[in-house]
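Hi all, posting the design record for the shared folder.

TITLE: backbone redesign
STEP: 1 of 1
STRUCTURE INPUT:
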């Protein structure tokens, strides 16, 4: 298969002739030979590349999660690098002044198929400013690495919008970033001048390993496709005091805390009858983030059947189980999360305080899942029209 970047580079004049170009990029913005789009575009005689824009983690991907990134100069090309992940919510969008010398804004970043992942939010905010400035947006599409068939999760209540959930899109949306752009532009009313350069040869049932593309880590804690498969559910642990194993070699697949008994937890999880997944007792010692330098006990997720595995339900089941077993030790995160400190982080992740309240009240997993998987009407109504494959 071929990505939007590779198709664009066949004949850049088709989309970019005579235009001053800006590029939103990160380490995944490469062709199959791992040559970065910055170098490809800067060297091309028919392209006038003016400005680079970097999302969370930066254009080179060195910054950790929620670590602010400063403006810089690209060391290879000398081009200006504008950070779209600064200290305030306003710094997440380019300003009209930063787009003043840009006619076309290219977006080319590998997404992982979960609404929390902030790159699609960066794209949406760029689209909003581009609409105000009459700048065309061209999205160079890439495959959804966890497939485009399975959809999991719920919506987003008004007032809970945040950088990991700008719109009521399910936690696992089953769309490519180009399809999301079309959904945002139409169903959610951004209304910019949008083109999507679609991939060639991708089928919705295909996971990333089914392509012939090289996997480049989209962020420091997304080392493998296996990580992406579990992420739509396991990112929920960011809203708790349970370690999602940042600071280990298997983030989001491992999880635990010093106060957990692994065997007891696995017995509780097995009682839920979750499909497509097995849990293995595991201990780990994170090098940073939660419980850095301390032994955590818990488990590793082993997905044994991807088509039947439901990541979001599994993540909720893990939270329910740990809260049930360790009510005095378990806690919700109270620190600022994705630029908001007025509501619990878990509400921003699930999209509804009712999920947290049900877990706190000791509701059954079935009740929690019922609450957590509702509220996607706009998404449901607009998704089919936005699909490209």
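Okay, here is what came back for every position:
SEQUENCE:
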């Amino acid at each position: 298969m071929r990505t939007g970047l590779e198709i664009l580079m066949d004949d850049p004049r088709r989309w970019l002739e005579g235009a001053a170009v800006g590029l939103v990029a990160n380490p995944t913005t490469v062709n199959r030979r791992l040559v970065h789009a910055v170098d490809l575009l800067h060297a091309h005689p028919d392209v006038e590349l003016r400005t680079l824009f970097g999302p969370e983690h930066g254009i080179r991907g060195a910054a950790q999660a929620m670590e602010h990134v400063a403006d810089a100069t690209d060391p290879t090309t000398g081009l200006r690098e504008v950070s779209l992940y600064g200290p305030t919510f306003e710094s997440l969008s380019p300003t009209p002044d930063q787009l003043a010398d840009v006619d076309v804004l290219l977006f080319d970043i590998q997404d992982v198929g979960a609404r929390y992942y902030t790159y699609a939010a960066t794209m949406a905010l760029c689209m909003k400013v581009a609409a105000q400035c009459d700048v065309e947006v061209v999205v160079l599409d890439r495959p959804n690495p966890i497939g485009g068939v399975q959809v999991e999760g719920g919506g987003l209540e008004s007032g809970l919008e945040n950088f990991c959930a700008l719109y009521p899109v399910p936690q696992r949306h089953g769309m490519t970033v180009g399809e999301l752009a079309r959904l945002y532009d139409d169903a959610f009313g951004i209304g910019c001048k949008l083109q999507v350069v679609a991939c060639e040869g991708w089928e919705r049932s295909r996971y990333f390993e089914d392509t012939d593309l090289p996997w480049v880590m989209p962020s420091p804690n997304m080392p493998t496709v296996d990580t992406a498969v579990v992420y739509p559910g396991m990112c929920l642990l960011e809203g708790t005091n349970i370690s999602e194993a940042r600071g280990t070699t298997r983030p989001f697949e491992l999880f635990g805390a010093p106060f957990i008994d692994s065997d007891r937890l696995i017995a509780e999880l097995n009682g839920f009858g979750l499909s497509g997944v097995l849990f293995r007792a595991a201990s780990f010692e994170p090098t940073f983030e939660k419980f850095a330098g301390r032994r955590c006990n818990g488990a590793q997720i082993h997905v044994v059947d991807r088509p039947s595995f439901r990541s979001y339900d599994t993540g909720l089941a893990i939270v329910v189980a740990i809260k049930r077993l360790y009510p005095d030790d378990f806690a919700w995160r109270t620190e600022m999360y994705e630029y908001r400190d007025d509501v619990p982080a878990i509400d921003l992740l699930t999209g509804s305080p009712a999920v947290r309240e049900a877990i706190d009240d000791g509701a059954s997993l079935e009740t929690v899942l019922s609450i957590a998987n509702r509220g996607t009407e706009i998404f449901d109504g607009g998704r089919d029209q936005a699909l490209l494959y």
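COMMENT: Residues 30 and 273 are 41 Å apart (CA to CA).
Let me know if anyone wants the other runs.
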